[in-house]
Amino acid sequence: SQKIEQNSEALNIQEGKTATLTCNYTNYSPAYLQWYRQDPGRGPVFLLLIRENEKEKRKERLKVTFDTTLKQSLFHITASQPADSATYLCAPKVRDKIIFGKGTRLHILP
Amino acid sequence: NAGVTQTPKFRVLKTGQSMTLLCAQDMNHEYMYWYRQDPGMGLRLIHYSVGEGTTAKGEVPDGYNVSRLKKQNFLLGLESAAPSQTSVYFCASRLAGGTDTQYFGPGTRLTVL
Fold first, then answer.
1. CB B113 within 8 A of CB B12
2. Per-residue pLDDT tens for B31-43?
């Protein structure tokens, strides 16, 4: 069965440093993978999408990589700020559906 | 544009009661989804719809029914609520085709006593 693994523990990062979140998947090869942000008490919000033939995608301070050999996507936030504190979900496309990971809680410490 | 809205925001039910959650979107999206989110479980798909008048089961459909009589609305019904249905429910929508990017509502927090 399809499996998605994200860091189950919360990640604490000092303000100004780069935060790196990991998404590992097994048993399938997604055509693309999306990352969403979710704040407490709110619905997820789409951030970035990376396709299987792209190694890297950037948007402002965000960068996503996609390694189809390792079956892994990394999500980086550079120059992190307390406002980046949230839960981040990865969501690979598996056949005809999007499957959401459980998310990683990120805390940026001032 | 309001995007995706959900009604109500909070609800407390007793076991055995019924209720309907309403999702509305003003983006003319063809696809609509209902998810539940529980601690440690992530988002799980309950039912979805690929267009007006069509619905399909997701990963955890038991105990729920849905209807999509109008393109902009997607209703989720609980006929006889159980404590196991205590959860936060999210509705999402997206355009047909493209990259499946979903737009989520703010959620409904449901407690079943």
1. yes
2. 999 999 998 888 9
